[in-house]
Amino acid sequence: MKRTIFDEMATSISEKERRDLVKKINRNMNLNDTRIEETIYHVEVSKEDKDKYIKEEILKLGFFERLILKIRKFLSGKTEEAAYTDQKMTKLKKTILKKSPGITHFDTRTVTKLFAETVYVLFLKTSSLVDLFEEFWKKGDTFQKILTELVESRFPGIVKTIDDLLNDEDAEKVIFEKETKMALKEEVIKRFNNYTKKVSDSIFYDIEEEILPLYYFRPIIVFPYYEFFKIFGFNPYSENAIYSFKSAPVFTCMEYIEKIYYAIYMVLKVAQPVKINPLLGKHFYKNIEEEKIETENRDSIQDMENKEEVPNENSSAEKNSNDTEEDKTLKWFYKKLEDIYEESKKINKKIPLVEIIKYYRNDYYYKLAFYIPKLRFKELYFANLKIQVLEQVNDKYIKARNLMIERNIDKFFKGKTFVRFFHFRTYTGFDYEKIGVGYFTNIRSMELLFNYLVYYYNESIRNIIDLSTRTVLAQDKITSTNLMMQISTIDDAYVKIQDFDKSLSPDMEDGKLFLRLRYGLANDNAYLKMYKTFILQKNKVSDDIIQRCIEAFDNIIRTYSELLNSTQFEVKNSLAAHYNIDGKTKSFRDFLVDTVDNIRYFKSLLAQVKKVEQGDIK
Question: Which among 612, 148, 162 is positioned nearest to 391, based on CA atoms?
């Protein structure tokens, strides 16, 4: 009996090579079932359409063909259409027998081992690339990183991070005006959309052409060869396993035959010589090198293939070559793809896959629809980039808000020495976060309020309030009394803030307790509850002081706003009067406008500081 290619290969490999091949088959078996998209589906052709096709084809028949059809119709007793369908199916059968005799047994409706052996040769060509292809698609970020590199290499002024769209200064302006993270996010999206319109579609079309071969080769490389061979009785785990197959029921393997047809169809769409973008080649180069390191101490079939396909280090050809190790490995990779291409072409020529599928589906007009990858790289690239940029909004907001606060505080208190608390402060030398305990919440906001009272309220605003009660509000006792109450509240807060700081001094009872609790936390968990209670109490006191001042300032703003908007002649006349306050001479209306603006600006700063202290990132 004539020996097949498969028989020759089966007898030529050693036991160790066989075991290595078993491992490769096993890897195919264990690949994630979701690794390949559903790319093949049957297109239902209606009876009406089939009848239409048949009638059109009959009309196109020549004289002798029509004569034969009439004889068939007469002998079979069938309709002309049914006789013509039988004729088409007979033609399919003859084509199969002529193109690949012995590939199938029509009487038993089986596919012979010749089919499995042919696919097995293809498997040997693809086995060394399975891990590389799977690794490429399993790591979701690998492809995106390569795509990003490709785009960045071809488009100047590329956006990589949120900073490329919105600098810190612009971010500060947005936050200061609208005070929300959502406003910042909306600005980023607006600038991102404007940016995407500037990037030419042609960049992505070119990239697609350089990447498509990987998509076209993927179905054939990650084809479920193990499951297919198993249908033909192949058991690589048997101790006495011999690489032989037996015939298999055609309907059991029909799904795989259709997938093989699709896989080969995809490979043959690639133009020769097979080339991919160098960046992708470098990715595979690295993985190939890792594969070589893993297998260098094992005798395997891959080693045997490498000996045949990769130039030997001692060969004269290599000695005369200037190729780097990377170049050599990439050539090895490209040669593997070329080998797969050539083997696919052989199978396509040798096995009438379309005819076998149609014949055993008993439908000459049976159609398969294939999903051909349409790589929308522009949408993919920008969708991923947008996600990355928006993920950075939170950090950008926090950074810009903190910078804005510090810059505006420095601007607001320019020329003034900012007063720091002696005792109500952050103490170094102990990691409170490490042991999971909180700390004073309002240190920064209390300092800001105290400095405002020292440099603005005490030096200027209080004098303006006093003057207003003696002039424009002299006849309005209710409003005047209300303002005096606000003064009292703020004056009281000024004293309480200083007392609050002093209370934490080591000379004071609270200070002694705080010191004991701080150092006790490191050694005794019993102090934990007492410490938390102490912190909560102090936070409550400081919150109350700040809130009372805010309410007092709100009352002052409301009172002066009503005065400035008043239509009464007496009020307007009083506001038009000029005074000299703190060396400045202008109308009292201007003094009140400046006061209201000053308090509002301070309140905005204080609100931002409070958000930071409370961890509010909205």
Answer: 162
Q: List Cβ neighbours of 554 (8 Å cut-off, separation of 6 or more).
A: none
Distance (Å, whole) CA 600 – CA 179: 14
Could you tell me the two tokens for 156? Answer: 């100047």
What is the bridge-based pairing of β-strands 578-581 and 40-43? unpaired
More confident residue, 451 or 16: 451
Which tokens hold the place of 326?
């990377």
- How does DSSP assign 52-87, residue by residue? HHHHHHHHT--HHHHHHHHHHHHHH---HHHHHHHH
| 579-601 pLDDT per residue, tens | 888 788 899 999 999 999 999 99
Written as one letter, the residue type at 562 is E
pTM for this entry: 0.54
Summarize pLDDT for 228-271 with one digit per residue, the tens.
Answer: 998 998 876 665 555 678 899 998 988 899 889 889 988 888 88
SS3 content of the chain, % helix, strand, coil (to 5): 70, 5, 25
Sign of CA pseudo-dihedral 439, 442, 445, 448 = negative
Sign of CA dihedral 379, 380, 385, 388: positive
Rounded CA gap, 95 and 342, in Å? 23
Read off the pLDDT of each residue in 322-343 and give the average, rounded to a whole number.
Answer: 80
Q: How many CA atoms lie within 13 A of 282 on its CB side?
A: 9
> What is the crossing angle of helices 168-178 and 393-412, to 10°?
80
Tally of CA atoms within 13 A in the half-sphere of 118 that contains its CB:
22
Q: Among residues 509, 505, 493, which one has the least CA distance to residue 541?
A: 493
Overall residue count recorded for the chain in this entry: 618
